[in-house]
Amino acid sequence: xxxxxxTVLQIIDQCYYDDRMKELATSFIDYKEKEGFRFAxxxxxxxxxxxxxxxxxxxxxxxxxxxxxxxxxFDDLVDxxxxxxxxxxxxxxxxxxxxxxxxxxxxxxxxxxxxxxxxKQEAKKILNDHSLRCMYGQQxxxxxxxxxxxxxLRITKEKSGALISSACLLGSIFANxxxxxxxxxxxxxxxxxxxxxxxxxxxxxxxxxxDLLHKKKTLPILFLLQNKDPQFNIIKDYYNGKxxxxxxxxxxxEIITNIKKSGAIEYAKxxxxxxxxKAQKCIDEMDIxxxxxxKIVEFLLK
Length: 302
Prior knowledge:
It is a single chain. The protein is mainly alpha-helical. It has two domains: 1-176, Orthogonal Bundle (Farnesyl Diphosphate Synthase); 179-302, Farnesyl Diphosphate Synthase (Orthogonal Bundle). It is 75% helix and 0% strand. It has 14 helices and no strands. The chain is globular.
């Protein structure tokens, strides 16, 4: 995705007047490149799938990557659970200002692309609405209000489903404004599945970037909190404030070994597959060529 990164860097160069802030924003993009520009790919894929031809769409795709990076930064500032990104070693005030710049730059990327003016306004409304949904989901996640499977799925739909659906929708509306309802539905289901997959990986990490250590309530953890096996009482006690983080860290390897044998991972994988199946059903029912349906499934699940 060299073209995406070049476009992102061009936007940053135009938007930041301060050399230090520009340097930081560029280093953040370099870091993000390592995990790939997945959201930009979603925009470009849907634009191409529904017949889009204008290369200006690359600016829109770059814009959403700037937005996602800003949201990731704000999320890490709030949660304080991820020591790896470069923005964690910079003062929170400076990082906040850089992230605000990224938000503004994402809007400018759409404003200044040479595409249909009416569609651009609709695209910005989609981005704003979905970003607010994501913010709501992240706040509810931070408040740790999840107690049931339904809570988790509802909040994850807002937190993760909204962002993935926004990328898919941008590509489709700039192409032909058709199939918007269908795209939104399958993208949200897929977004939930992606988050479940991330949660499965997180709970098995023997590092500080582990949802259990931070008392998050993901699907695998909800399973464990309801498990009557005495070996998981320590997790229940930890969530109830009866056990310290230091004790959990000292026993982390043993706890993770037990989690892998508990059925929690298998349960989460079943739930993930259920969301994928719902996405698949939406795609199957779309009034588009079979080859297009196959392309969507292949792309989303690659």
